């Protein structure tokens, strides 16, 4: 969470974000209207227009800001190389110059594309892959979206609505009825700003799968890699659901693509009989060795039920049974009894105005939510204030709370939470846990990284999993990271990934 001093959410940024391939919550909430797909022959896509290139060039820096920025270094150069090589198969001009391939500094599993040949994947998703063919498959899938002009079709289907308006409409109808807090529900249901984009229809996703598989085969890669990376995503989704509990399941593929488990068998069938057998497994593992994994300390880190931000020097803890996801603009908090987020806003020293502005921001200024009162307090030496408003959600009354902290005359942070009416107190322990940390504590926060190790004689699944830099789910994380199961056998000389500091 690299929290800005002021919230940025311009209609221009939203319009660009709406063109990205990563999606919102439509599938998890029942799907969206079908969108027809025109046939696209691999290698014969229509030339990108000047308008598409301009749109992508304008959107690119804004999307980087929304999705954690670009991850740089040798791993990023490798991803760019593979991405441009597979993009050649689309026929969309000279891929070496026509495409921009970016490795994002994001701890979520995601990949997306926008018009103009801009392709993105996160370092977290790359770390989940097992070989270069899988990397080429994911990037080829996104190239397929560009080649088929899916983003433009979805934008037209949304009638030029901004993504926030489109998702807000979905969530306000499903979660909260036609209420004034639809925007709040949309914000708190998101798992960070990676969801600020429209969802493709199922037919578009299938077409992108098929194009990606064809690109793999034509490039000499094993076309089954599309199915195996989807299988890894499905396994990661299952682990995330296990860690979060059934009431807090995260949407598939960071809520952006149809359920990968349902696409595995179809992708295998599509690849059957197609030429290509290159995977470049060892090359891939060697090239991603040392890549950051999980939260970037500069954006704050989630450690169990505690969030620590070494740059702004604070930490807080969520109640037992709650789960946090660190996004680029906010930390999302989800549990059975309520949802919330921590973020920041523009602060001029007036806490009452700050809190009211936070309430106003929940409805995009369309209707005002006003707390019954604003109370001043001190939390662990930090000046603070809070207010709660009871709102008719359309499905019953809910309590919306803003709890803000003044860290300086120009810097404030605040929680926004939503609970059933009368249940706002479930977050009291979280509000009271906010505290500053000193320089020593801040310096102790370290980044995790991917460490590719070679299996030696005597190594077992248990011994390798014990080296994972986590306090829980060590074995489960290790197995998913390496596409293994509890009955897998290790071979001496085999390369595997572990997560270390």
TrEMBL record:
The Swiss-Prot or TrEMBL record lists the needed cofactor(s) as:
Zn(2+)
Q: Which GO terms describe its molecular function?
A: metal ion binding; metalloendopeptidase activity
Q: Which GO terms describe its cellular component?
A: membrane
Source organism superkingdom: Bacteria
Where does the secretion signal sit in this chain? 1-33
Q: Which InterPro entries match?
A: LysM, LysM_dom_sf, Mito/Outer_Membr_Metalloprot, Peptidase_M48
Q: Which GO terms describe its biological process?
A: proteolysis involved in protein catabolic process
SUPFAM superfamilies, per the entry? LysM domain (SSF54106)
Residue ranges occupied by any LysM domain in the UniProt entry: 451-498
Query: What are the UniProt keywords, alphabetically?
Result: Hydrolase, Metal-binding, Metalloprotease, Protease, Signal, Zinc
| Name of the protein in question | Metalloprotease
Species assigned in the record: Croceicoccus pelagius
């Amino acid at each position: 969470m690299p929290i800005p001093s002021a919230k940025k959410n311009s209609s221009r940024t939203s319009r660009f974000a709406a063109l990205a391939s990563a999606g919102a919550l439509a599938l998890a909430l029942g799907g969206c209207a079908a969108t027809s797909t025109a046939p696209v022959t691999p290698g014969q896509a229509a030339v990108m227009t000047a308008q598409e290139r301009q749109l992508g060039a304008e959107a690119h820096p804004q999307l980087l800001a929304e999705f954690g920025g670009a991850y740089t270094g040798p791993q990023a150069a490798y991803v760019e190389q593979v991405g441009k090589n597979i993009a050649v198969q689309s026929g969309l001009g000279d891929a070496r110059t026509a495409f921009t391939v970016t490795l994002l500094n994001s701890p979520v599993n995601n990949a997306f594309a926008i018009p103009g040949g801009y392709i993105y994947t996160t370092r977290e998703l790359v770390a989940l892959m097992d070989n270069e063919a899988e990397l080429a498959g994911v990037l080829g899938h996104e190239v397929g979206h560009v080649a088929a002009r899916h983003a433009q079709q979805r934008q037209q289907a949304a009638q030029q609505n901004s993504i926030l308006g489109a998702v807000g409409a979905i969530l306000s109808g499903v979660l909260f009825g036609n209420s004034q807090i639809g925007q709040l529900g949309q914000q708190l249901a998101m798992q960070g700003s990676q969801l600020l984009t429209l969802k493709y229809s199922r037919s578009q996703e299938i077409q992108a799968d098929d194009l990606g598989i064809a690109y793999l085969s034509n490039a000499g890669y094993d076309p089954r890699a599309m199915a195996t990376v989807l299988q890894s995503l499905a396994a990661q989704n299952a682990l995330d659901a296990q860690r979060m509990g059934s009431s807090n399941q995260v949407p598939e593929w960071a809520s952006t693509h149809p359920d990968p488990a349902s696409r595995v068998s179809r992708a295998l069938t599509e690849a059957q009989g197609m030429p290509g057998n290159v995977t470049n497994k060892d090359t891939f593992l060697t090239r991603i060795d040392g890549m950051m994994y999980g939260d970037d300390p500069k954006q704050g880190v989630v450690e169990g039920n505690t969030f620590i931000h070494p740059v702004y020097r604070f930490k807080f803890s969520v109640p037992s049974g709650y789960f946090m996801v660190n996004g680029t603009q906010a930390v999302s908090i989800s549990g059975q009894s309520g949802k919330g987020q921590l973020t920041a806003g523009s602060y001029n020293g007036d806490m009452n105005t700050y809190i009211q502005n936070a309430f106003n921001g929940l409805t995009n200024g369309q209707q005002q939510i006003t707390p019954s009162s604003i109370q001043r307090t001190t939390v662990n030496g930090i000046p603070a204030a809070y207010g709660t408003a009871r709102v008719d959600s359309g499905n019953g009354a809910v309590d919306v709370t803003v709890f803000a902290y003044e860290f300086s005359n120009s810097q404030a942070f605040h929680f926004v939470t939503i609970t059933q009416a009368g249940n706002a107190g479930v977050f009291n322990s979280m509000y009271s846990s906010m505290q500053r940390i000193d320089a020593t504590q801040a310096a102790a926060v370290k980044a995790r990284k991917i460490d590719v190790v070679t299996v030696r004689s005597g190594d077992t699944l248990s011994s390798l999993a014990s080296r994972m830099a986590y306090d829980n789910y060590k074995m489960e994380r290790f197995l998913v990271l390496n596409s293994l199961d509890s009955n897998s056998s290790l071979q001496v000389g085999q390369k595997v990934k572990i997560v270390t500091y």
